[in-house]
Amino acid sequence: MRKAFLIIMAILCLCTMGFSPPFLSGSDLADRAIYPEQLRAIKKVPIPVPAASATIMVDLVTGRILYANNEHERRSPASITKLVTAVVALEHGDLNQIVTVMPVDLAATSRGSLANGENLTMQQLLGMMLVCSDNAAASAVARTLSGGDDYEVFVGWMNEVVARWGLQDTHFMNPHGLDQEGHYSSAYDLAIIARNAMLVSFIADSVKLTDVNIAGHQIPTTNELLRSYNGLVGVKTGTTDAAGESLAAMAVRPQGQVLTVLLNSPDRFGETTLLMDYYYANFYGYELKLTDNQLNRYQDADGAWHTLYIRDAYTDLLTPTSLNQMHLYRRLDETPTNPQPDVAVGALEVYRGHELVTSVPLYAR
């Protein structure tokens, strides 16, 4: 009886023990919290399958495609086209240039209530085009920079840009994205377009705005997720009869950066939310950096110390269960007294469990 009593008491004591929030640590890896949504998803769960006609989800830290469906199928890109329009306008135009809105522009419709004969700067029109997806603004910009009564020259520049980016399934016929024969793109190409457009500061700053007042026009965004999804930074909606409801979206959080494109979705905002929630619950973007500590150095034959460093960044995409499987080992092949900047002295070997993932050259100064 006494033995049974002691066993019961031991079990009860164990049940009352407290546990601190989980974290990972090591001599080389900085402490990293496991986010609550990742802890809840420690069991592998299936990725939600959107009903969109074409979809792609990409981790921007590694460039790894995490989900894709009909990603190379050529479809109408609708107003996601305007990302390329903005890139071309910034390459060939002046933000302070005055543009006059004409009837030919208004024929494409104006969500921002532009008027015939209205004069705005290129910057103002691009803002209207990117925030509220104004078609007339896109037309006015392209027509003006083409230097004629149409935008044929400008559209030629658009196609030159996507050719320069190596896109195989994209061709433009207009600057606003309205349905037209020969005007198409794919979810895969649009992901590249969105990524490249977001590298342009003016575009990135514009597509994250929820609303803006431009020349007396109150402009609300067409991207509803900017008001509701934590970490969303853009990028562009699109809707036409042929395209359906479409959306290219990007989110940035400490855990990672994700880009999704959905074409012809019955619920573009809801399905984008499901994909991004899945990403943040199941993945962690890891960037390898050598910390400044005594392990990252060596002493040469003369007794002098030299700091080790890596020149090429290494990134990996981990799951919550694999975070504690990451191990780093330094391999020093030589310890020169006068290390050369272009000659590696060894390698930093990255292991996931017992598997060698990569070997990054180590240099010394």
What does this protein look like?
This protein is an alpha+beta fold. It folds into two domains: 229 residues, DD-peptidase/beta-lactamase superfamily (Beta-lactamase, 3-Layer(aba) Sandwich); 78 residues, Sandwich (Peptidoglycan synthesis regulatory factor (PBP3), Domain 2). 28% of the residues lie in helices and 27% in strands. It contains ten helices and 18 strands. The strands form six sheets. A five-stranded antiparallel beta sheet has the order 4-3-11-10-9, with helices on both faces. Strand 3 and strand 4 form a beta hairpin. Helix 3 runs antiparallel to helix 5 and helix 6 crosses helix 7. The radius of gyration is 27 Å and the shape is globular. The termini are far apart.
Please write out the topology.
Layout: H1 2-15, E1 23-24, E2 32-33, H2 36-40, E3 54-59, E4 65-69, H3 82-92, E5 98-100, H4 103-106, E6 119-121, H5 122-131, H6 135-146, H7 152-164, H8 187-197, H9 201-207, E7 211-214, E8 217-220, E9 232-240, E10 244-253, E11 256-265, H10 268-282, E12 284-288, E13 297-299, E14 305-309, E15 314-318, E16 326-332, E17 346-352, E18 355-364
Antiparallel strand pairs: 1-2, 3-4, 3-11, 5-6, 7-8, 9-10, 10-11, 12-15, 13-14, 14-18, 16-17, 17-18
Helix pairs in contact: 3-5, 3-6, 3-7, 5-6, 6-7
| CATH-defined superfamily of the largest domain | DD-peptidase/beta-lactamase superfamily
Mean pLDDT across all amino acids = 88
> What structural class should be given to the helix and strand makeup?
alpha+beta
Percent of residues in helices = 25-40%
CATH topology of the largest domain: Beta-lactamase
Number of beta-strand segments: 18
Integer tally of domains? 2
Secondary-structure element order, as H and E?
Answer: HEEHEEHEHEHHHHHEEEEEHEEEEEEE
Taking all Cα atoms into account, the compactness measure Rg is 27 Å
C-alpha geometry: globular
- Under CATH at level 1, the class of the largest domain stands as Alpha Beta
- CATH architecture group name of the largest domain: 3-Layer(aba) Sandwich
Question: What is the terminal-to-terminal distance?
Answer: 69 Å
